[in-house]
Each structure stands twice: as structure tokens, then as C-alpha cells.
Amino acid sequence: MIEPLKFFIERFNLTVSDIEALLGAALSKGGDYADLYFEHTVLNSLSLEEQIIKSANRAVRQGVGVRVISGEKTGYAYCDEIDLAAIRKAAMTAAHIAQSQAEIGPINVSSANPSHDLYPVAQLINEEPLPRKIELLNRVDRTARDYDRRIREVQTSLADEYKVVLIATSEGLLIGDVQPLARMRAMCIADDDGNLQSGVSGGGGRVGMDFFSDAVVEHYANEAARQAIVQLEAQDAPAGTMEVVLGPGWPGVLLHEAVGHGLEADFNRKGTSAFSGLIGQKVATELCTVIDEGTMPHARGSLNLDDEGNPTSQTVLIEKGILRGYLQDKLSSRLTGASLTGNGRRESYRHMPMPRMTNTFMLSGESTPDEIIRSVKRGLYAVQFGGGQVDITNGKFVFSATEAYLIEDGKVTAPVKGATLIGNGPVALTKVTAVANDLALDEGVGTCGKDGQSVPVGVGLPTIRISEMTVGGTK
Fold first, then answer.
1. 33 and 53 belong to one structural domain
2. Mind listing the pLDDT tens digit of every residue in the chain (475 residues)?
3. CB 3.0-4.6 Å disulfide test: which of 45, 138, 320, 396 passes with 159?
């Protein structure tokens, strides 16, 4: 694995003195703080459809983002070249935007190493020969078609990136990281006499080629095919207010959207979140403990350091129903006096960092999944989710369930289609009446959007029972 500082110095003819001078330029018009974010990323994608390779792409993204903070004011500029003149121009642009009367003396930076090593990789996917990748996709196709004769079409893809970053700050920090990331996706379309249904599966993380073993690849293919076949037999979902049981793993996306975003510090600092001003107050039943954990080895949402150079951490957001804190970035931490949590994230050098989730999940409880199912007289068991929307200001959400079943007299019965869950995140947490002991994270597929930026994340949930939720259906 390469050393980030050495990589940027040798590849782009930079020196530590150059970096210090650039930080000085960023603060030449005043300001409280400045940082530089150097990035070099190689991105690859490969897709198969109709049993042929439909696309194969390789791209390089590189540049530098410069930020200057002056009180509540932020100046940001970037350049698409890692070149001293271009970076200096960006630094002066950010300086003029955030100019103030503050003065900072000469800046000296010292190189440091991340305190974590969360994703050592033996064989980078970025370096894997193309025929090997093509064979993986062909295996997904063959396995899915063998699952059931009604599988009509298979679409599968493999995407990976290899990102090298270096962060320099006016507080003297100079630190870098090498961040691999990969994701495989499989979608199957089943056809039963004109009844077309689909299923989706996949996974990955900050992993190497060895992660995609035969067993893992066959699991993705069979799971996508299984979901599509189940939907062929699904009946229209009922509508109304009823008990809802969320399955483990990916259904944690509902927690991520309906609750997690509302716990990011920028919304709360501005007073626009449904959770603003509620630290220390009860916001959920005592069964609910919600964690954001950026230090899980090889997880999709994990980072050795956030995009401001701070170590990631485990942050307890809600503890036994009590709101304990928010996810902080540098700006919110400076303005509110809260401790950093290592959640300053950005999509690329073209974007300013902001508070974002990493891997967000609810801890296990003491019930068993079977006990929870048996306790429900009539309800909905939601296992997989598709798209959703949430209003941060009030917590209202709408989610579509792509795989769900009826619960009748304590038993999971018929699959249903067209079910949507409609509710309010803070209210939903106060209606959690059982939490099982089967916490699972998603398989490594999550991508989170906020203010036009997308970043990889993880979500997780044990099986939980919500006593009352509105289900939108078609009958």
C-alpha cells in the first residue's frame, strides 16, 4: 500500500513547504481556519446485461479543495489540477470569500498517520485483470438463471474505486489515507406468463478481490433471483394502520433516513431538525440504542479518518431512548463547542465537508425474531426496502417495501407487493415495542445523498416491532 504524502509529493512535484505556503495563502485575507484536501481516485465499472458486457469504464478523478472558515462564514474553491499555480488560485478565491480581520502567523505542518488501519487489502480490485472481473459477472448470470426457469433477464455490475487523499490544516495536521471501495450488484427479472417482477441483491465494502468468493457471488445471484420469484406470487398489500415488523439488516435504511439525518449537527445547529434542542430528553422507547460507528473493519461506511483528517469513532446518538448527541464536523464543532466525532465527509475534492453518517444501526435487544412474529395478530413484515423520502424538519417519511409479507395470527403468510410505510421518524421510535437479538448490517450497498453529495454508508437493524404505523397499499 502506498504512503499518501510520498505519493502526492513524488507524483505532483510538491513539497511540505509548498503545502504550508498554500495554507498561508488561504488565510492571507484573514480567517480562523483553513484546510487543503488533495484527492487522486481511480474508478472502474463493468456491467453485464443480456449475457453480454454492455459497458466497461475507467476514469481518474483528481484535484484539490481549499476551505477557509471565518466564524460562521466559509469560503470554498477547488481546482481540477494538482498544480501549485492552480491550487494557489483556488486558495486565494476561498480567502476572498471568507475574508476577515483575524490574523494567523506562519503555518507549520507535521506529518501524522491514521490511528486506525480498518481496511488492509491483499489484492486491489483496481489491479485485477479484466477477464477475471468478466468471469465474476458471467457466474452471477449463470447462477441466477439456474435458480428458476422463470428468470428471464439478469443485469449485474461490479464497480470499484481506489482513492488516495491527503489533508493539510492550518492547525498543523498533515495526514493521508488510501481508501479502497467495491460493490457488486445483481438484478433479476422474473416472467410468469407476462407477470414481470424484479429482485435486487449485492454487496461489498472496503475490500479486495478475495472478498468476492464463489460463495459470495452465488449468494448475490440466488438472493436476487429468489426475491424476483417471491414477487410473482405476491398479492396486493393491504392499506391502513397496523403493527409493522422490520427485518434485520437493510431495513435499517429506514432508521438511517428517518432518524439518522435528523441527528446530523448542521441541521441541529440551525434549528431545522425535528431533534433540535432535545439532547438529554427521551426521544424513543428505552429499547432503542442507536449508534454511528465509523471504525468497523472493511465496512462500506468506515474510514480510517474523516474527510477533515479527524479519526472516526463510535458515537452513541440515542441511549436507551435518551438523545445523547449529534454527528459533528469541524464547522459545527467550532460553532457549538461540541466534541468532534469524525463525521466530516464529502463526496470529492469538489465538495465542502459536512456532518454525515458512517455505519448507523440500532443495537440488539433481548427478544428473539420468532417471539416478535408470534406476538403480532395482524401486521406487516417488511424485509427489503427500495426508495424513500424524508423531511428533516419534521421527520415525516415514506418508504417502499420491495419484499414484505402479511403476519396473521403470529405467522408470516402471503407475500405482498406495493406496500409503503408512512410515518414520522421521531414518533416511530416512541412506538418500538420489541427489539430482537439478531442485529445485522446491510451487505455493503448503501449510498447516502445530502445536499447534492453522495457518500458510501452502512445501515443496520435487528428485527424490531413498531406498534402502529400507516401502511399504504393497493387494497
1. yes
2. 689 999 999 999 999 999 999 999 999 999 999 999 999 999 999 999 999 999 999 999 999 999 999 999 999 999 999 999 999 999 999 999 999 887 777 899 999 999 899 999 988 898 899 999 999 999 999 999 999 999 999 999 999 999 999 999 999 999 999 999 999 999 999 999 999 999 999 999 999 999 999 999 999 999 999 999 999 999 999 999 999 999 999 999 989 988 899 999 999 999 999 899 999 999 999 999 999 999 999 999 999 999 999 999 999 999 999 999 999 999 999 999 999 999 999 999 999 999 999 999 999 999 999 999 999 999 999 999 987 788 877 888 899 999 999 999 999 999 999 999 999 988 999 999 999 999 999 999 999 999 999 999 999 999 999 999 999 877 6
3. 45
**Is residue 323 domain-shared with residue 226, that is, in the same domain?**
no
Asked if 147 and 55 sit in the same domain, the reply is yes
Query: Which residues constitute the domain of residue 115?
Result: 4-232
Residue 96, all three cell numbers: 476572498
Residue bearing cell 400507516: 470
Distance of CA 255 to the CA centre of its chain: 12
**Do 216 and 275 reside in the same domain of the chain?**
no
Same domain, 208 and 251: no
* Nearest one of 426, 406, 390 to 473, comparing CA atoms: 406
Task: Please tell me whether residues 299 and 220 are part of one structural domain.
Answer: no
Helix (H, G, I), strand (E, B) or coil at 234: coil
The x, y and z cell numbers of residue 166, run together, are: 491527503
What residue type is 254 in one-letter code? L
Q: What is the CATH number of the domain that holds 200?
A: 3.30.2290.10
